[in-house]
Amino acid sequence: MKKGIFAVIYGPSKTGKSTATGAAGASGLFIAQGGGLLPLKNYLGIEDIKVLPAKTLREAATTIMENFRNYKTIVVDDFSLLAEVTIGELEKTHSFGDMWRQLRSDVFFVRDCARMANEHGTHVIFNCHYTPARVSSGKYVRGGPKLPGQLPEQFSAFADVVAQVEFDETAA
Predict the structure, then answer these.
(1) Span 35-88, pLDDT tens digits
(2) d(CA 101, CA 91)
(3) 3-state secondary structure of 142
(4) I need a labelling partner for 26 at 20 to 30 A (CA). Which of 34, 44, 85, 140 fits?
């Protein structure tokens, strides 16, 4: 059995991330909020999209584990938003330091679930917003997926493929 691919695709809003991941995983499962997938219908003409919602990273990971045997591709749409919502939920129940430890644990749980799916031949694609390169506390920080702290570089390091989406207004 061929292994699946762990991919991270990121870019600014309205640059075609959902459209690109939709083209790659058209017959797969989307873990997403339905409205974010309108480009799949509008631009690609894909009507029968299987979508399951997830509110937090842990819910997304559980959905991957429960469904990877049924799909060749799973797309986690707007992973950045899932991380933000997870932080909000963790703030309600954890102290500051414990919240960040739990967030890191949840991200690693998602990674482990995606890798388990990969071992069984399922591709898992994470669609993220973009954080530009910047200087923080005098240190240069590369741009990448919009995630808190050191997670942009760490999460990208988990992936087999990392791609930045660019939008060219002059393209047909």
Answers:
(1) 667 677 777 777 777 889 999 999 999 999 999 999 999 999 889 999 999 999
(2) 12
(3) coil
(4) 85
- From the list 167, 130, 156, the residue with the least C-alpha distance to 7 is 156
Tokens read off for 154: 């760490």
CA distance 81 to 112: 20
| 81-119 pLDDT per residue, tens | 999 999 999 999 988 889 989 999 999 999 999 999 999
CA distance 127 to 31: 10
End-to-end CA gap in the chain: 39
Coil/strand/helix, residue 101: helix
- Token readout for 72 is 């060749």
